[in-house]
Amino acid sequence: MTSYTIPVQIAFVISLLLSYFFTVPWLIYNYRKYGHFTWWHSFIVYLFIFYILTAFALASTTLAHHEKYVCVSIS
User: Fold this and answer.
1) Positive/negative CA dihedral, 4, 8, 10, 14
2) Sign (positive or negative) of CA dihedral 16, 21, 22, 23
3) Is the predicted pLDDT of residue 2 greater than 70, yes or no?
């Protein structure tokens, strides 16, 4: 069970940080374009980026890495 919880925790932390760093430039652009930004709209954009990154991390970290599951051996 811990083989799945550790990648989930790592994916959670990394996606939190990445979604923050992807949201900040969007907030700056939105502020310069409109002169203000709403917290609700910014929160929704942050959650969308967080969702996309978390889904990608969960899909990529749970793939099998064992050679016994590979049909063709690389030599």
Assistant:
1) positive
2) positive
3) no
